[in-house]
Every structure is written in structure tokens, then in C-alpha cells.
Amino acid sequence: MFDPHALAHRAGLADRLRAHWPALRAADLVPLPMKGVAHDHLALGDLDLVVRVPRLSQWSMPAEAALAYQAEGFRRAAPSGVTPALHAVLPPDDLLPRGALVVDFVRGRAPRLPAELPALARALAAIHRVPTVPPRRRPPLADHAPNPIAATVDLLDNHARFLETATVAPSVKQALQHELAWARSFAREAEAAPIAAPIVLVATDTHPGNFLVGDDGIARFVDLEKTLYGLAAIDLAHATLYTSTQWDREVMAVLTADDLRHFHAAYAEAVGPDAWARLEPWIRPARRLTWLRTTLWAIRWQALAASDPDWAADRVEPSLIAHIRTRVADFTAAETVERLRAELAEE
């Protein structure tokens, strides 16, 4: 396993990077604070670049395929102007079992919510406005056409494999099974809908902690690991749900209905009335689906952190793992599940 804090590992990484930047030294590689479970990050001296070193694949892909997928995500999103540019791909080897990417170092801070919700909306709109390529050109990125609801339900079912043995209240299991039944039913309805859900390039993991706001007030999205062709409404939901705004340690906001309306208004203005009219009918059900996706992911994380070496809690910085455990416990608590189900039903 690559350790960004081990001098020998940084020296080995510097050796590989010198094929692209000959003057680079091991001392130029500076480990950055751990932000999540999937990657380590190292800044490259004064080059305004960062190395993303995967620790695992959240989609359980083989190392080479996962790295190629992520690299293509950065390439496809680049025309948006709000994502880091890709500069180099380091293939998997003994030092880097999952390889690494070198991308722009985005200078900024965590978004301040709710005040900067419009900036997040505009960033998402910029990604969603990237021209959608024909189906034959979409691989290796996943393509959720023609029914992104059914594709999302497939992911839910994968996460739900861990529900039966989860250490959550029986009422939570019952509620989530009810939500899964609704999701499957809604996927069948979507299949027969007279107007298909619009398919665009989406970022997927759009919780606010994956944005950085610069001094210019522009929000930039920095995690393209799960880019695919799907439903923009899911990106909007994941940027604003309680289980998203309460995930990152540097955000920790709770939004009101007015906050959500302002967010959607900013997005609608950015994409234009025609695109918004096609998307608006999907906004409410996408929020329910995305909340279910996140809650089931939390249950999956609990299981994998205790059983899968790639997900082991001891691989994560102690204060971060403590925060994740607190968030997962909150998101899967009976009172939280009951409250959020009721709120989503009332929207």
C-alpha cells in the first residue's frame, strides 16, 4: 500500500514523475490532509499540480480499468471549465497498486452554505452543459441511458446486499426496504414515461465537500472518479440533501426549503428554460432516490470497513474515521431516517 507520508514512497513516486517533470524532487511532494476514503493526495511543489493516488475503487473495478475510467472522467469534464485538467497518468505498479493521476491543484476553500449554493449550482450546470457525445462514444464511462432511474436502482440493489445483516434498527431496515420497493416501481414508471429523462454528463459524487470556492467566487468540482452519462437531477440532489451537506467536516450545513429553491433557481438560470423544463419533473423523485443511495452506501460502508482490507478503518486518519462513523451513525439512525422520509414526501 502506498503511504504518502513515507519518504521512500515519495522518493519512488518522484522517480516516476520525473518522466514528466525532470527537476522534481521527493521533497517537492507534500502530502495533503486526508479528505475521504478513496484517495491520497500530494501537492507537487510550486507546480500547481496534485497527485491523486487511489486507495480503492468505490465501484470495485480492477486497478487499470478504474484508473482509465477516472482519467477519462477528467478529460470529458474539462470543457466545463470548472474541473481540474488532467496532466499525467501513472500506471499501476508495485509502488502504486492502483496507479495515480496528476491534475491541476485547485486553490480554494470549502463552500459556505447556504450563501454559496448558487455557485455550486452554476458549477454543476457547467458540467451538465458539456455536449453529450453519441452512445457509441460514451465508453469507458458508464451510460445510464435510456432509463437512468433503472440504472440507479441497480446501484441501490447492490448496496442493499448489506442491509439484512446491518447493525441498524429493525424500523430502519423496514423503511429502507419500503423505499427500495418504491424505487423499483418508479423505475418501471420511468420506462413507460412519454418523455424520457434527459441524459447528460454528470459528476455523481456531488456532495458539497467535493467543491472548492476560489477567491473569484467560482466553485470548482474536484472529484471526477464517478463521472458518467445520467440524470442531472441526481447531481443536484446530492449537492443539497441533509446526508450530503452533513458529510464533509468543513461544510456541515442544514438547508431550508428556501435555500433549495434558490439553488434550483440559480441552476435553472444557468442551463436555460428549455433544459430546466425537461429536468424539473425529475427533481423530486431524484432527491428521494439519492437520499436512499447515500443511506444504503452508509450501511455498505459499515460492513466493508469491518471486513474488506481495502476499506479498513485503520487505513484512514483517526479523526476522519471518527467523523465518518459519527455521520454514518446519524444517517442510519431511526429518527434521521424517519425525519428525512417525511421531509422528502412533503417536498
Automatic annotation (TrEMBL):
<dbReference type="Pfam" id="PF01636">
    <property type="entry name" value="APH"/>
</dbReference>
<dbReference type="InterPro" id="IPR002575">
    <property type="entry name" value="Aminoglycoside_PTrfase"/>
</dbReference>
<protein>
    <recommendedName>
        <fullName>Aminoglycoside phosphotransferase domain-containing protein</fullName>
    </recommendedName>
</protein>
<dbReference type="InterPro" id="IPR011009">
    <property type="entry name" value="Kinase-like_dom_sf"/>
</dbReference>
<feature type="domain" description="Aminoglycoside phosphotransferase">
    <location>
        <begin position="47"/>
        <end position="281"/>
    </location>
</feature>
